[in-house]
Amino acid sequence: MSEIDSAPYRIAAQPYYRPVGNEVDLYTAAYAARMPMMLKGPTGCGKSRFVEYMAWKLKRPLITVACNEDMTAADLIGRFLLDINGTTWRDGPLTLAARMGAICYLDEVVEARQDTVVVIHSLTDHRRTLPLEKKGEVVEAHPDFQVVISYNPGYQSLTKDLKPSTRQRFGAMVFDFPNPDVETEIVAHEAGVDSITAVKLVEVAQRSRNLRGHGLDEGISTRLLVYAGRLIAMGIPPADACRTALVRPLTDDPDMQDTLDAAVDTFFG
Amino acid sequence: MSEIDSAPYRIAAQPYYRPVGNEVDLYTAAYAARMPMMLKGPTGCGKSRFVEYMAWKLKRPLITVACNEDMTAADLIGRFLLDINGTTWRDGPLTLAARMGAICYLDEVVEARQDTVVVIHSLTDHRRTLPLEKKGEVVEAHPDFQVVISYNPGYQSLTKDLKPSTRQRFGAMVFDFPNPDVETEIVAHEAGVDSITAVKLVEVAQRSRNLRGHGLDEGISTRLLVYAGRLIAMGIPPADACRTALVRPLTDDPDMQDTLDAAVDTFFG
Amino acid sequence: MSEIDSAPYRIAAQPYYRPVGNEVDLYTAAYAARMPMMLKGPTGCGKSRFVEYMAWKLKRPLITVACNEDMTAADLIGRFLLDINGTTWRDGPLTLAARMGAICYLDEVVEARQDTVVVIHSLTDHRRTLPLEKKGEVVEAHPDFQVVISYNPGYQSLTKDLKPSTRQRFGAMVFDFPNPDVETEIVAHEAGVDSITAVKLVEVAQRSRNLRGHGLDEGISTRLLVYAGRLIAMGIPPADACRTALVRPLTDDPDMQDTLDAAVDTFFG
Amino acid sequence: MSEIDSAPYRIAAQPYYRPVGNEVDLYTAAYAARMPMMLKGPTGCGKSRFVEYMAWKLKRPLITVACNEDMTAADLIGRFLLDINGTTWRDGPLTLAARMGAICYLDEVVEARQDTVVVIHSLTDHRRTLPLEKKGEVVEAHPDFQVVISYNPGYQSLTKDLKPSTRQRFGAMVFDFPNPDVETEIVAHEAGVDSITAVKLVEVAQRSRNLRGHGLDEGISTRLLVYAGRLIAMGIPPADACRTALVRPLTDDPDMQDTLDAAVDTFFG
Amino acid sequence: MSEIDSAPYRIAAQPYYRPVGNEVDLYTAAYAARMPMMLKGPTGCGKSRFVEYMAWKLKRPLITVACNEDMTAADLIGRFLLDINGTTWRDGPLTLAARMGAICYLDEVVEARQDTVVVIHSLTDHRRTLPLEKKGEVVEAHPDFQVVISYNPGYQSLTKDLKPSTRQRFGAMVFDFPNPDVETEIVAHEAGVDSITAVKLVEVAQRSRNLRGHGLDEGISTRLLVYAGRLIAMGIPPADACRTALVRPLTDDPDMQDTLDAAVDTFFG
Amino acid sequence: MSEIDSAPYRIAAQPYYRPVGNEVDLYTAAYAARMPMMLKGPTGCGKSRFVEYMAWKLKRPLITVACNEDMTAADLIGRFLLDINGTTWRDGPLTLAARMGAICYLDEVVEARQDTVVVIHSLTDHRRTLPLEKKGEVVEAHPDFQVVISYNPGYQSLTKDLKPSTRQRFGAMVFDFPNPDVETEIVAHEAGVDSITAVKLVEVAQRSRNLRGHGLDEGISTRLLVYAGRLIAMGIPPADACRTALVRPLTDDPDMQDTLDAAVDTFFG
């Protein structure tokens, strides 16, 4: 069991990550305490990239699971598969991470049914074990193993929330979009546009974020700003680029589209 | 893995597509930026044909998935199948497209459960990877790979909508029926009728489209106009052809049928 | 693939069908245009028999699928089955029909979940292809292939209806019970009763059809009239035959049964 | 296919059945016309036994299916099973009956989901065929084949009813408990009690049947009367026998039990 | 088939059962008449033990099925399993009991979905047969076979009840907790406490049973009294023993716990 | 069967457990009586650790099952798996525990569907047997076997509760967070902080526990206090450590976060 190959899960190159506060120190201490961590924040604000950056920095393999409602406990833990010698066991990503000492990252954890999520409980308290009931084995987690989960508290429905008994197993860090200066720097760097264009794009995004809860579920993310910048860098007229990359994806509501188009025209008209 | 045969997914002949604006340039730039794209517009307005045309023009293979509510994550990603040597893995269309560098087109994406659609998330952000958890492999997308989705925002129920965290990964282009002149040209070309007949058919369609939201979910599509034209070209009396190809398919409501029949009689009576 | 045996799907003998209008010419033109067709009308009015008649007349094989809510996309498209060499693919009826150039008839299509029905979309627009995603094959429809669907718009619940994006792919023909003279001829011919008895049976049916929406979901069908006629031809007293074949099957409501029994007694008392 | 062994489905000995009207002649004619039949009536009034009797009298094998909500189309039609040579097809009871020329009796048909029941449609109209889509075979029904269904219209909920398109395929016969003289004869014959006791038991049952819809879903059936009679014949005090076999099974409602106990005491106190 | 080994289902030693009325004679007669039986009464009042006692007394094997909502018809009847020669049939407990002539005891039958329970119908009327549709076999029940079901009518929800068509197949016996003198004798005998302690425990139970329907679903059962007695016999202070074995298990409601604690203190304070 | 290896389920080292009352004696007596036990109390108050401690003290193996809504009866009991010789049976954790004489601990039992939980019934009354219906075996529990269940009565929804027929099989012990002195000792011991810091952390927790039912489902658990202490011990500023480990995990509600942050600032500001 000690020869599990972690190479496919190693982060080869340093991911681009722009710290915005003490989050790196805090996570480093949390990892040292092997405290399971919960990252909260809106879509596209950089939670996934932060985990990649920390896995790279801490030199740990990273196993990411994109949670969805079809996900079963077996998808996390593993299952028996049939081959020429009969059924053989194949570890799921959670089990693999526990054996290997990886950071296991459950992305958008509230998308999973919370009845599935409870399988992480015994790995996230003092036991740090995972019973493979179907296999009759109890896996002791590797000393370097840690569970990280992320979700967006902003638009979850009432029926999708973590159970209290799950929450009580995690420390939590709150992420948000970076402040305008930092975001401008990120957009300019990733999209390859000048800082004047980047400033304008960030202004448009700010407007949209003020509409959260007033007709929009979410505001324009940093990720979409980078896309808009790339279109502009390729010669698409800025207003067309903004409509394509920022406004039309966000909403089907004609009034809301008009409002956002007006914001685009203010800066790029 | 590098020898995947993309031939079955190549578009052999140039598809008939009549541009109506700057959509070809915009898509070309979006593809160059590898921005995932979302095509919005009513049924039968030409979204699918546009994607075929662009795949042909960009010389990329095209893998189309007709989304439906039964579709599972495994239908997109792949699954283990049993053969004489036991279970072997078979890539799903999304995985195949990611390996091959194809355009992967998820047609009518809101028909799928949105909990299934989240499997595209890691392919549509900076990661451009697809974890095959059941297989223990992480697929890096080919540099030419792109995801395109389409849907009709017009008649979706409240319970069928894209998640904000999905929307935020796409640029968006809006399609509608072509303007009357262009539509007349298309109907005449595809149905083989004279332009006077084509003009009248387009007039009937316009009337029906004004009834959207007033008893009709959708107006008559260009596709149905072509069918009506073909029946007329084969000698079916035009009013019969219109009833068969335009009115009866659209609605079971007797009042709405009378209204549409009257429109037919205005032009073909 | 070119050697598919269509013999089991050929209509050997000319089915008895009594045209009531221009439906044969209209369908012939629609088939020539390879327009997918939708047949609408009440239970037992002859839609299925019309399709059989046209398949016989056009010399095409006919593959019928009785739709039901359990039907999955795999039931239409096909699936992998296990045999001694492992899993082998077996075409479903839709795939088989597409390869063979058959008329594929989806009977009572609204009984299927509409999320299943969307698998016919790519076969019913300009593409005329069927992607077999699980098999990694794209089937090009045979030039003679056509899809026909039927349903009864009369008693469908609000939750069972075709999607607009499905409707927009079909021409439509409306069927109803034949007029009294034609129906009398049919009943006399098929049941082997004299025309006086046939006239009376048709009169009883007319009365019941006037009760549609007033306590009855449907009126007495031609098919039940033929059964009643056969019982009479075997010597069962006509009133007993009518109660058994026309009244008792139609409703469990005692008041409605009394009303219909009175109609029977008017003609056969 | 012609060598199917029908022996296990033959009724060896004449079942005890006491005709109460013209039901034997009517059924004989219906069978001669191969009209599918529907038997309606309360639980325990003799529908199942009547079918057995007619199968015996007509010298046809009888295949009974006890319908339930878990029943799938495959349970009726058949499925592929795996054996040493791979998957082999096994006919379901409906298919077996169609090949063999049996009477196929779907007992308590409304217990099945009506979406399952539609698989009988093509066997119950002029087609008399059963497409085995999974197998790629179309079974032509044996000339002696007939479908019979039964149900109890008395206590069905609104959500459980036959579809109109199913009803329109059947003739119908209505059953009820026999009249008191006949029922007394049956109870005395089957339970082995004297006719005075049998009369009293039938009187108790009559009282309970008057309570249908007034606190009871059903009255006491002939079957329970026979059980009560047998307990009495074995020396159990009649009042105890009636409480055990007639009252306690019927209801958990204390008031209703008191009412029925009083009826018992009136005749056996 | 005649060599089925019934040894594992034989009751080796006489179970402790304390008759409280004529239930042994009544059941003996019911079994002699092969009348299916229904045992009604609250949890823990001795229904299961009574069946064991009768099976021992009548020298019949006993096959018990603990009903639950996941139970399918196949769990009762049997299924095909795969072994080295392909699929082989394995009888379920109901089939096994029918072949062996056992008493088949469906414990807590309303926990099963009533659509599953209908599979017992043909074994509980004059037919005494069980069609194994998947296997193509009709099992004739052994002459000694009998079906017994139990349930608790006290706290069943409205959605969980036996169908009338199921009820009509059974005789019924009503059980309740024994009278105080008998219950005291049982508690003293099974827990090994003196009769003064047993009397007090029974008094506490009586109080709780008066609260049925007034905040408690059920009162304290004889079984819990025996547990409390055993704790006392091991030296646990009686009030602690009562809180642990009688009060805390019964309810999470603090007010109800106070009421019951007060009853405990009255007798053991 | 007697050679089951219990070694993987033995607790090697004495778990840290700080008794807070007579719970050790009470459980010891309950185990001696083989009374099934139910442990009630909030998340993170030490129920799981108590069971581990008792298993270690009583020298019994411990098999823990983390209950979840996907859990089926087969997950507890066992199932047939396919290997090179066909299907072989694999015991589930409940069956394994019953054979081995382990303590079987169903953690968070109300997370399971209560229809699954009924499979423990025959192991938790006088029978102490487990019928393996699919295998045709009746397992007699080892004399040392005991079932223990836990749950949190505080935040269960109305739809998640134990059935009365399940409750009546268990003795019950109520757990809560330890008193402040004991909790301070635990936090200081496990986190490695001085007692002044530990006192303050416990004070913050007390405040949060007073908010239960007033905006919080649960208060801060001892487990989270230990995490906060570890972060402080690693040099993270105490207020940051408390926000990360105590406040942010507990709630997404901004008002509630402000209230808790204020409590943190009172003690660590």
Your description of this structure?
6 copies of one chain form a homohexamer. The first copy, chain A, has helices spanning 23-32, 47-58, 73-77, 93-100, 114-117, 164-167, 180-191, 195-209, 222-233, 238-247, 254-268; strands at residues 37-40, 62-66, 78-83, 86-91, 103-107, 129-132, 137-140, 146-151, 171-174. The model of chain A has no long low-confidence stretch (mean pLDDT 88). Chain A is 40% helix and 16% strand. Chain A has 2 domains: 7-174, P-loop containing nucleotide triphosphate hydrolases (Rossmann fold, 3-Layer(aba) Sandwich); 180-268. Chain A is built from 11 helices and 9 strands. In chain A, the strands form 3 sheets. Chain A has a 5-stranded parallel beta sheet. A two-stranded antiparallel ribbon of chain A has the order 3-4. In chain A, strands 6-7 form a two-stranded antiparallel sheet. In chain A, helix 8 (195-209) packs antiparallel against helix 9. Chain A is elongated, with a radius of gyration of 21 Å. With 269 residues, chain A is an alpha/beta fold. Chains in contact: A-B, A-F, B-C, C-D, D-E, E-F. Chains E and F meet through strand 2, strand 3, helix 9 and helix 10 of E and helix 1, helix 6 and strand 9 of F. Chains A, B, C, D, E, F: This is Nitric oxide reductase NorQ protein. Chains A, B, C, D, E, F: It holds the Pfam family CbbQ_C. Chains A, B, C, D, E, F: Belongs to the CbbQ/NirQ/NorQ/GpvN family. Chains A, B, C, D, E, F: It comes from Rhodopseudomonas faecalis.
